Amino acid sequence: MPERASPSIGLAAALGLAGLAVFFAVWAGAGVLGLVSATFLPGPLTVLGELLHLLTHPYAGATLPQHLAASLQRYGGGVVLAVIVGLPLGLAMGWFRPLDAVVSPIFDGLRFVPPIAWVPFAALWFGTGAGGPVLIIFTGAFPPVLIGTYRGARMIEPALIEAARMLGTSNRRMLTEILLPGAVPSIVAGLRVAAGLGWQSLIGAELIVVSSGIGYMMVQGEAAVATSTVMAGIIAVGLVGTAIDLLLRAAERAVRRRYGLVGGGR
Q: What is the mean pLDDT of each run of 10 residues along the chain (266 residues)?
């Protein structure tokens, strides 16, 4: 069955702009026609003005860039921790069958618990300190890192592993020089998923257990019925998340080209 042709870059960009134009037209029209009160749905220009205002004027103790910096710091800590734990554990599980048998039942039970469910424990254990959000981000980012690494390690050609065994390769070198390089494409794909889930988990954590950050700013805006501030925060969250995904998407394409794999994903 022939594959459907993908639209050109220019056509895809035009379609994307058309979709955005329709979205903003509906949004603005809802306010102009009086379908929704401006208190609960301010217009696009009002939200844009508030977004620009927050860049230089503090709200809830900090400007928007300062809130984002605090959020990104927590985010980086949670994602790095997920990589530090998930990458070697995934490789080890892919190589040592007994370890896989021990860890998999525990992991399979925990990975379906949504990160937001860990908020009560984060609040009890860490209060409003940095540890709580890092824990919640870790629970969101860890499963994709582990799964991507594990699958990559299990997809290594058996002949390559057998040849290394015949040459007397130690377990440490097997992990670092054969399994890790071979699993890199799958690891990068898992990191892209982990980055997105980690960012979503961060915002959920900041809505509850912190005293700074973009989520905290949005909570304070909601308490003051400052809908434009809340919507400006949502836009900032979306823009930063998109930027993170674009960077990782480019890294994934580069890795797939490096390893001669077709199709870099969206």
A: 61 84 88 81 92 94 93 93 93 86 89 87 78 90 93 77 68 70 84 91 80 89 91 93 90 76 53
Q: Are 119 and 208 in contact (CB under 8 A)?
A: yes
CATH superfamily of 45-258: MetI-like (1.10.3720.10)
pTM check: above 0.85: no
> Going by C-beta distance under 8 Å and a sequence separation of 6 or more, which residues neighbour residue 234?
218
Query: Token match 């494409």: residue?
Result: 185
Q: What are phi and psi of 34, to 5 degrees?
A: 75, 20
Would you kindly state where each structural domain of the chain is located, as residue ranges? 45-258
Coil vs helix vs strand at 59: strand
CA distance 146 to 171: 19
Q: Six-digit token pair at 64? A: 């928007």
